[in-house]
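Here comes just one.
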Amino acid sequence: PKCGLPITTYFSAVKLRWLIDNSEVVRAAIRDGRCLFGTVDSWLLWNLTGGKDGGKHLTDVTNASRTMLMNIGSLEWDTDLLKFFDIPIEVLPEIRSSAEVYGQLVSGPLKGLNISGILGDQQAALVGQMCFKPGQAKNTYGTGCFLLMNTGTEVCESNHGLLTTVGYQLGKDKPVIYALEGAVAIGGACVRWLRDNLGIIKTSAEIGKGDCCCIAMVDNVGGFYFVPAFSGLFCPYWQSDARGVICGLTQFTTKCHIARAALEAVCFQTREILEIMNEESGIPLMSLQVDGGMTANTLLMQMQSDLLGINVVRPSMPETTALGAAMAAGYAEGVWDIENSAKATITTDTFTPAIRAKDRDERFTRWKLAVERSMHWEVPTPIQGPIPNLYRSLAGGLFLWTSCALLLAAELLHKR
């Protein structure tokens, strides 16, 4: 606030309200017109276009949709939400489309170059995977997993806890494309848990080789399941009191089974989300585009195809998030369009289902049983507060009143 630069955070309305409530410096800067709020993209654009010397305070529809303050129908800051959180609209960035010229770089070797593409992380991957038709979907496998399905120009409301979000808007005069999103809390984090907590593997890369603990040599015929609900279950359950469970242990269970079940847990959770998306969108998915660090694990990708019953398509260029942002910028500059991208030849690895539908469904049914056993495990413990004063003084009170009664009895006996 003192130098006129914006306060930066990937903010939500709740965080923003907390900051205003707890910082007199921020409140004073807002009153004086010296403070701006925005997401990381708006802060970068502000600085790249000149900062306090004429910088552009803008964001795009995808980033704005994650703040809890934008109306995803009108694509504007929602006046009712701003009133509810008591946030002045003057401090927020202007909302633009995902592909248009926002300004120019003011310094450096690229001075004068247009800045023409802004997209949120998962939405950029949706564009990078070229999911431009309703029903096309991508899944990003990272610390968690984020599955987005293109639902077209109509808002598709979810009744099962999926997030309705803005997918992209390629141009200020173009229609906005919406998406359904489902999140898996524990993806790559489960592999790290195997490495750091159990010591089953030494590096995360080992789990994809198949020989680190013979993962490729074991199967799930015996019904061994691992539900990594370390901090609760996300979509579609939204159970914060769930905790991780391992089901089906026998004397023959080895660390190989645990490692394999950890990978299968990622696949089962993805299937749960995808089935809901198919139901709510009314468009059955025929193949799944994948990206992210975990997709380097070929065994995981084959498991995913087996348990979904559809093809899993992995591009040779894994950085689809960066590609999507570049495509949006190219669209704004007229050097790329959706029609030409459909004709492009893309090198991919395609994994096809290799197990019977009956086996796939039986394993998924048993996974559901394991999930049920993980729920409502964290029972709230009653807080043991101080002993109430009434009970604390009970012994003393009894002594006092008993003594008074004895004195009265002694006095009556004395008078007789």
Summary: The chain has two domains: 7-96, 121-374. Confidence is low (pLDDT under 50) at residues 1-10. The chain has 14 helices and 17 strands.
